[in-house]
Amino acid sequence: MRYDENDRESKNIDDRRGQRDGGFRFPGSGGPGVRIPVGGKGGMSLTTLLIIGAIMLLFGINPLEVLLGGGGQGNFPDITRMPDQTQQAPRRTAERNPFEIPGLPGSRETKQETPGAPKAQDEMRTFIARVLADTEDVWNDVFKSAGRQYQEPQLVMFTGATRTACGTGQSAMGPFYCPLDQKVYIDLGFFNELERRFNAPGDFAQAYVIAHEVGHHVQTLLGISEQVQRTKQRVSRTEGNRIQVMMELQADCLAGVWANLNHQLNNRLEDGDIEEGLNAAKQIGDDMIQKRQQGYVVPDSFTHGSSAQRKEWFTRGFKSGEMKSCDTFNADSL
Questions:
Q1: Alpha-carbon torsion (68, 70, 72, 77), positive or negative
Q2: Residue 65: strand, helix, or coil
Q3: What are phi and psi of 157, to 5 degrees?
Q4: Nearest to 329 by CA among 221, 219, 255, 233
Q5: Could you tell me the mean pLDDT of each successive run of 10 residues in the chain, 334 residues long?
Q6: How would you classify the pairing of strands 183-186 and 154-157?
Q7: Transmembrane stretches, by residue range (predicted)?
């Protein structure tokens, strides 16, 4: 892909890499802290305080700093900001595929090096910020042409694990989109896995990953995600998987639409880029993943589509450059 130092980087990046707390908010670190009442009406018992103190020590936290209002590095997590557990958001599991979304329906950091981050990862951060900026350019134009306003998603980079409105996000889950907070989450180590484990190298393969997740954001803004979720709650698991496949293939198609329009707008594509994207789509097909993991294929358990299907729908979107080509839900065949 063609990028240079003059290309815009998105400001919608929340870089949590290397944070021990995985993105949790702590008192004294810019967010509201936890009030721990001691004594008096509504106060905690000594036993309760001892239990909390023990938990704090497990996190390497000085309980006295919390009790005395100190601003040390890393106090007790702000549980007042935990996700609403009544929303019934499905949670991801490590066994699922790399591009799964954990449910259906920030801070904007200035450019700076992440302390302790390898140079290669800082270069990757720049690349991702530029790809995300390109998705903003394209989808802002598309929505504007339809008389609507595009709400730009935030992209969270994290290491190991981080908190999301859809539950705890973990590196083993691969990149994912959470519709409840409208953010894309990714541990940059996934791109090494994409190249080594899935045999899908190349910068456009990485851009395809991001464009696919942003495609889920577009689906959320259009109300498609919410409709799919409601439908899945009324049908069998097998039928729910089939509907989920339609959802994922549509996101692949939207990634193709983006690639087409982005090249028209920003002249990004180079020889071999689309082939890299198609190879990535092939390598992460449900059939390929199941063959690697268990040696055989169970089509009824597909949740993202076969290699052939993923390549087909990305290609449809790319060739047409139009969203109307991405109606997987009413297609005669997938």
A1: positive
A2: helix
A3: -100, 130
A4: 219
A5: 95 90 42 34 51 55 46 31 35 40 33 50 91 98 97 96 94 93 95 92 96 98 96 95 96 98 96 96 94 93 96 98 96 90
A6: parallel
A7: 42-61
